[in-house]
Amino acid sequence: MHGLLSYPEFVQQLMEGFAPPEIAQLMNFSTLQNHSGNYITPLFEEKFEDVVWSVEITWEGLTQEIYLYILLEFQSTVDRTMPIRLMHYVACFYDHLLKNGTTTPSKGLPPILPIVLYNGSERWTARQDIYDMVYPEPPAFLQVYQPHLRYYLVDEGRYTDEELGLRPTPLSGVFSIEKASADRKGLQQAVDRIVAIIQASPDKERIDNIITRWLKRYLQRLGAKANLDQLIADIEELPVEEIEKLRADIKH
Prior knowledge:
By secondary structure, the protein is of the alpha/beta class. The chain has helices at 8-18, 21-24, 82-99, 140-143, 161-165, 170-179, 184-199, 204-221, 228-234, 240-251; strands spanning 27-34, 50-59, 62-73, 112-118, 152-155.
């Protein structure tokens, strides 16, 4: 997924198909710029998968740049410390912008939209604002001094097949494949669906190349759970040459 979100069209599909429409409709997607980088933070002392893009929005006649900070959370279980982690990550990203001269304290910090993209089997139950982890809730005279940072959650597993079908984009097809990974028949149906979406795309060749590379890597990761030769053979809609490439890559 990290690789897919390095392409602007997939970031646009994420925002238009799964983010709040009142935010997405303000964005000029032709201005998307990639600022991604895996940062080692002092608190966690480890790299984490993040994707950072800037995009211009126009609000009440004013155009400004905002940052989309997308954290990919692909663990199998819910991390209930996510509000703390994300506050730390955003603070480190702001520090990065100051240190590289993108902005200064006098110019101010740009707006950030933090997004957590989660594809675990459990439904997401972690708090979405760090303030909600402060318990018991402090009295009114202390509330103003408590931290606030809310992230927007995209929980792939909560979307039904019908809901994903209403979003005919390659990214929604990817969500369908990841949801069906434990079911070979469901996986074949999901791949058939994404093939149909790609065939209808005006940029078919580019999208086909991107998705084929992603699908190959994804099926390789499923190797411990599935009979890949049989599974690939069942994907009848894939061109024969692509099936043979997948088989050859998996064997090597």
